[in-house]
Amino acid sequence: MTGQILCEHGKNLAECEICGDSYPSQLLSWLGYRRFVAKIGTYHLTAVVGCLRRTFYDFTQPESETLRSLWMKQRGRMLHMITHAFGWRELPVCMQLEYGGRTVELVGHVDAYDPNKGVVYEFKTTSHLPWQLESGKLPHVHHVNQIRGYDVLLSNYGLCVNQLELWYMDDLTPPTKIIVQRENIKEWLVDRTKALHKSLLDNEEPASEPSYICKYCLFSGTCKPRFRYTHQLT
After folding, report:
1. What pLDDT score does 180 carry?
2. How far is residue 140's CA from residue 150's CA, in Å, rounded to a whole number?
3. Four-CA torsion 120, 186, 47, 200, nearest 10 degrees
4. How do strand 88-99 and strand 119-125 relate by DSSP bridges?
5. Residue 93 and residue 149 in one domain
6. pLDDT below 50 — which residues of the chain?
7. CA distance 157 to 3
8. Alpha carbon distance 11, 4 (integer Å)
9. Distance set, CA 2 to CA 18, 32, 43, 59, 63 (Å)
10. 7, 174, 190, 194: least surrounded by Cβ within 10 Å?
11. Do 138 and 231 contact (CB within 8 A), yes or no?
12. What is the pLDDT of residue 212?
């Protein structure tokens, strides 16, 4: 991210003669908050289980965020306050692997974990939740792989995992649970982490991974994917 926030006029919000004085600097700072700042050699799990080409563009062609897109992210952050109901929450996890004689890290933050039951909880904010459930669009494949990835990373710490639960919620709908079948995807995660790292070192974009969510991507104009529906309930 460049640090700029684009207003509805397509200008840097801080410099727009119309919008410039509309938002206090404290609010803009809060909107631009990021818990994790990516760097080459340390990758967040969400960046690896999602589209690798999008992650590559995030590193090499950072886009300015719009005020609306930042608000949607922070809206999710506020709804994620639900994790305060758990004792074990926002758990930092890490897995190290070797590539080219150097250590590469795959990191993540587990929303919540119940050590007594061995349950991993991952909360996802969305829109039009009832419609998505009725249309069979949930769970998203990358969300399934994300929580399975947390299963892999938690195993490095010797923590017991018996069940994986994705919880979807929106502004109007209470959290809805989807149980994800456990599957060891460690080898897949390692391969994708290495592929991403190599693409950044070589400055060569990864292969396109088109899906129906491409139309929501900031880089769809750069990538120009051929959209196709690839969702499959898992």
Report:
1. 98
2. 16
3. 160
4. unpaired
5. yes
6. 1-2, 228-234
7. 36
8. 9
9. 21, 11, 19, 11, 6
10. 174
11. no
12. 78
Residue 78 backbone phi and psi in degrees, to 5: -70, -45
Looking at residue 74, what is its pLDDT? 78
Alpha-carbon distance 35 to 120, whole Å?
20
How do residues 127-152 score in pLDDT, each as one tens digit? 899 999 999 989 999 999 999 999 99
Contact assessment for residue 52 and residue 209, using Cβ atoms and an 8 Å cutoff:
yes
The verdict on 116 and 213 lying in the same domain is yes
For residues 160 and 152, give the distance between their C-alpha atoms in angstroms, rounded to a whole number.
Answer: 11
Alpha helix (H) ranges present in 61-157?
Answer: 67-79, 129-134, 141-155
Q: How many domains does the chain have?
A: 2
**Domain assignment present for 187:** yes
Strand intervals (E) in the chain = 5-6, 42-44, 65-66, 88-99, 102-114, 119-125, 163-169, 176-180
Instruction: Name residues whose C-beta falls within 8 Å of residue 44's C-beta, 6 or more positions apart in sequence.
Output: 36, 38, 106, 107, 108
pLDDT at 234: 39
What one-letter code names the amino acid at 95?
Answer: M
Q: How far apart are CA 164 and CA 153, in angstroms?
A: 13
Asked whether residue 228 is domain-assigned, the answer is no
Range of the domain at 11: 1-33
First to last CA, the chain: 32
Query: For residue 172, how many other CB atoms are within 10 A of its CB?
Result: 9
Token pair 């693409």 in the structure block, residue = 199
Inter-residue contact 114 to 53 (CB < 8 Å):
no
CB neighbours of residue 85 within 10 Å: 9
